[in-house]
Amino acid sequence: MTTSQTTTQREITHDTPPAERLVLGAMMFGTAIDEATSFAVLDRFVDAGGRWIDTADCYAFWASESGYGGQSEELLGRWFAARPGVRDRILLATKFGAEPRDAANWPASRTGLSAAAITSQITGSLRRLGTDHVDLAWGHMEDRSVPIEETADACAALVSDGVTARIGLSNHPAWRVERARQHAVGQDKEPFSMVQHAYSYLQPRPGTLMGNHRFGRLSDELVDLAAVEGLDIWAYTPLLSGAYDNPTKQIPEVFDHPGSSRRLAVLDDVAAQVGASRGQVVLAWLAARGIRPMLGGSKVHQLDAAVDAMELELPAELLERMNGVDVTPPSA
């Protein structure tokens, strides 16, 4: 049995420093976010005590001139080179499996999660990042063309080879996460111990497809699996791309139902009581549930607001109010 299998526990505790509860997402660094701004955000994150930075080999193919990714990892590699010693101060995560093979035919044509593809992709990521290891490697997007057991074995090998310390799955259904974990445990190999999905205070209408991932939304089943098995949960798009607080951005249509109206009313009241913005309350609510929010902000002031949110401790009665709001739309 591996060490992580015998000591698995949730990462966020009451004693976790505020900035360490946050993940800085580097998705648009090097494409939509220029280098100077990216460096400024990264520097402020580290200065604030932040540690986790998340990227992927496919970031951001849809915003690049070539139609292929790698720009985010390359920018991070240049930042590491320009900041001697900073690599040792942060925890670095990257993902593989969603990079286009044919930019004109994505998502049908992508690198996937076969053993050979994983080895090739992580090698490319390390080269672009200018490092010999990452602290966390994610299977980015499920690949039904490959047995999940093959993916589990290939990712476990990354740990045994010293390429990464931990492994996780993003945008995978709960049953495949658990099948992969049970396979690894049965083979006395490193199991997946983390999941990454879209999650926020507002919940979309049931059965609504969000983005390109059929199982991209964090489900109650995954939350339950994580609680029972001690998995860590990372939540992307927790602020709905700024729609909670930016009047120029609309809350996505998939959240348009009476349950959202009830939740927004409570969110407004809680925000007024604690003297914070809607988005800050959402981040604090996630952290209080042991979920690590991922910030994709493009400006230093957005990062500062998120770090302040991690210092916000919501009183138990307010958390109970937020959790108690029915989000289920009425039956037709």
TrEMBL record:
> Where does the source fall among the domains of life?
Bacteria
Question: By its UniProt entry, which Pfam families does this protein fall under?
Answer: Aldo_ket_red
Identify the taxonomic lineage of the organism of origin: Bacteria, Bacillati, Actinomycetota, Actinomycetes, Micrococcales
Q: Which InterPro entries match?
A: AKR_Detox_Biosynth, NAD(P)_OxRdtase_dom_sf, NADP_OxRdtase_dom
Name of this chain's protein:
Aryl-alcohol dehydrogenase-like predicted oxidoreductase
**Where do the NADP-dependent oxidoreductase domain residues begin and end?**
21-325
**Signal peptide positions on this chain:** none
